[in-house]
Amino acid sequence: MIKKRQIVAIVSIAVVSFLVGTMFNVTVATDGGNPFDSLWEVLCGLESRIEALEEQSLPQGFVTAPAYDSGWVTIEPDETLTLSHNLNTTEVFVYLIGKWGYNAKIHQRAYGSVDSWGAFWYDLDSKRIRVNRRTNDGTWDYIRVMIWRLPEPLT
């Protein structure tokens, strides 16, 4: 004997099948093609985009390589270095780090202290940036400047 729940389930399946079949018939009738063709094209497009991204040698992590990297540069007390980045923009993020002695730990101690210690960058334009090490500064013998282009803001 068929129970009430079984009847409801059978009728529901029949109604859903009828609606899906009607939808496919309308789709085929209006544009003349299989409705799965467009879905297949989208999936193939996504697959090729994923393959292209996998082929790129992007760095691991959340930060990409900088557009400009000075590498480690020797800087003397009270010296000003002019570094040419040639990025043709001032819409950038600048990261300045230093170290005392070639094998010393990298740090930001006294970064930007224009009154007494440390090194600081200034005079950034679309082609160059200047870095100055303060007089009698015993914290930085080498500096490294890395610059990233800033993307356009999301709207």
Descriptive report:
Helices cover 32% and strands 23% of the residues. It has two domains: 4-55; 68-149, Immunoglobulin-like. The mean pLDDT is 77. A hairpin with a 5-residue loop joins strand 5 (119-122) and strand 6. The chain is elongated and about 95 Å long. It is an alpha+beta fold.
Would you summarize the structure shown here?
The chain has helices at residues 4-31, 35-55, and strands spanning 68-69, 73-74, 80-84, 92-99, 119-122, 128-133, 142-149. With 155 residues, it is of the alpha+beta class. The longest helix is centred in the N-terminal third of the chain and has 28 residues, at 4-31.
Mean residue pLDDT:
77
Termini separation (Å)?
62 Å
* Global shape: elongated
Strand proportion: 15-25%
Main sheet: strands, sense, barrel: 4 strands, antiparallel
Describe the SSE topology.
Layout: H1 4-31, H2 35-55, E1 68-69, E2 73-74, E3 80-84, E4 92-99, E5 119-122, E6 128-133, E7 142-149
Features:
single chain; 155 residues; alpha+beta; 2 domains; 4-stranded antiparallel beta sheet; 3-stranded antiparallel beta sheet; 2 helices; 32% helix
